Amino acid sequence: MIARQDEETPLLQRPEQPTTKTPLPWDQFSIVLFLETLDPLSSQTLSPFTPQLIRDVGVTHGDESQVGRYVGILQSSYYVAHALTIFHWSQLSDHIGRKPVILIALLAISVSMFSFGLSKTFLDLVISRVVCGAFDASNAILKTMVMDITDMTNMPEAYGYVPIPWMIANSVGPLIGGSLSRPAHVFPSIFGRSELLQTYPYLLPCSIPALFASTAWLVTYFRLKESTSTRTSLWELIKGGFFGQSHKPRQPSSNAIVDPGAADPDAVQSKPLSLRALLTPKVLNVTANYITMALFHMAFNSVLPIFCATPIELGGLSLDPPRIGALLAAQGVAHGIFQLLFFARLHDRFGARAIHVAGVTSGIPIAILFPVINALARAHGLGMAVWLGVAVQLALSISFIMCYPSMALFIRAASPNHASLGATNGIAQMAASVARIIGPASAASVFSYSIQEGHHAWMVYYFMITIALFAVGTALFLPRSPSVWEDDQ
C-alpha cells in the first residue's frame, strides 16, 4: 500500500512518485461485506409490516392518520439510542479494536429482533429498538474497517462492492417482512395450526435476521482479523480513564491487519485524539454534509412506505405489505447494481464532490414526485402512468444513494490521524443518527398531519425540499477532491 509519507508529499512532487493501485485484501474484505448485510437486513425486514403492526397493537385507537406518527416515533427510538452511544463505541474501537465492538453489535441485533417479534405493546416495540440502537455499532465500525484495510487508490473500488450486501439485504429484508408477517393468516395450510405464530404474528420474519446475526457472530469470532495496528486492553483503558493512569498501546498481534501507515514511525506513535482535538474544520465540514444528507434520506425512507400504505384518497397509493415489500426490494436491487457497476467509474471521471452534489440535488425532484404520483393514481388508478412515476423516482434515488460512498472518502481524508479514524467516523455517524432521529419522526408526523382534513397536502413535501436545499448548500463547501485534504495534512 501507499506509505503515509507519500500522502503528505506536496502535490507538485507527486508525478515523480508512481502510485499503483493496491489490490483489495479479499480474505478480510469478503467477511466485512458479509457482515454489512446484518444492519440493513434487520431494519428492512421491519419496514413492510411496521404500519400494520402499529395498527395491531392498538396504540392509534383506530385513527388511521396517526399510524405514520407512531411509525416515525418507533424508527426514531432506535436512532436516539444510537446517537447517544455510537461515538463512544467508535472511539472505543480505536482503543480495544474493531472486532470486540462488532461482536457486541451482532449479539444486540439477534436479541433485539427476537424481542421485537415477541412484543405485544408499543412500549415493548420501542424498548426492543432502543436496545438494538444502543448496542448496534456494526454499521459504523464496518465502515471504519473498510477505511482501515484500503487506501485512496482502492477505496473507490471497495465501495463499489459495498452495495452488494446492502442490495441483498434491502431486497431480501422487505420480502421477508412483507411475505412472512402474519403467516398463520397468509399461509393457513402451513402455519395455521401454530398457536405461537397466531399469538405472535410477526415473530417469524423477525427470527430470520436474528438467527442470521447469530451465525455472523460465529463467523466474526473465528474468521475476522483485527484491523487496528495497536490495541489497549479494556482493563488498562478503564484504569487510565477512571484513575488517571497512563497506558501503553499494545503492539500489533500476529493476526491483525497492519495499517499501511504502520511502517511510518509517526503513524505507529500516533494515538487516538480526544473529542475536542477531533473537531477540526475538516471534520465539522464533513459532519455538516453527512447530517443534511442523512436527514433527507431518512425522511424519504420513512415517508415512502407510509405513502405506499396510505389510501389513495388520503394522498398515498393504497398498496398492501407484499407490494410495498416488492417495491422496496426493487429499489434495493437497483441501488446496489448501479453503485457496483458505475461508482468507481463515475468517481474516476467526475470526482467525489461532483457525485455528492448531484446526489443531494436529486432530492428536490424526488420529493416533488410524491404528490405527482398520487395525482396520477387519483386520475388513472394504479396504471402505467403511476408506475412510470415510481420508476423515475427510483432512478433519482439511485443518484442520491451515491452520496454515501462519496462521503466515506471525505471522512477518511478529514481524520486528523489514522489512530483516530474510528472516532472521526463516529462523529459523522453520531451526527447522522441525530438526523435520523429528526428525519423519520418529523417527516412521518408532518405526513400524518398533512393528510388530515383541512391541512395542506403538500406540507411534507415542502419539508423534504427544504432539507434537500440545505444539503445542496453544505455540499458546496466541500473541496473538489478528498485528496485536497490529504495534501494539507
Number of helices: 26
Strand content: under 5%
Q: Which regions are unreliable across 5 or more consecutive residues at pLDDT < 50?
A: 1-18, 242-247, 249-254, 258-269
Order of helices and strands: HHHHHHHHHHHHHHHHHHHHHHHHHH
Describe the structure in your own words:
The chain is mainly alpha-helical. The protein is built from 26 helices and no strands. The longest helix has 30 residues, at 67-96.
Summary, kept brief:
The chain contains 26 helices and no strands. It has helices at 4-7, 26-35, 38-46, 50-57, 67-96, 98-117, 122-135, 138-149, 155-161, 163-180, 183-186, 188-191, 195-199, 203-223, 234-243, 265-269, 275-278, 281-309, 321-350, 352-361, 363-380, 384-401, 403-414, 421-450, 459-475, 482-488.
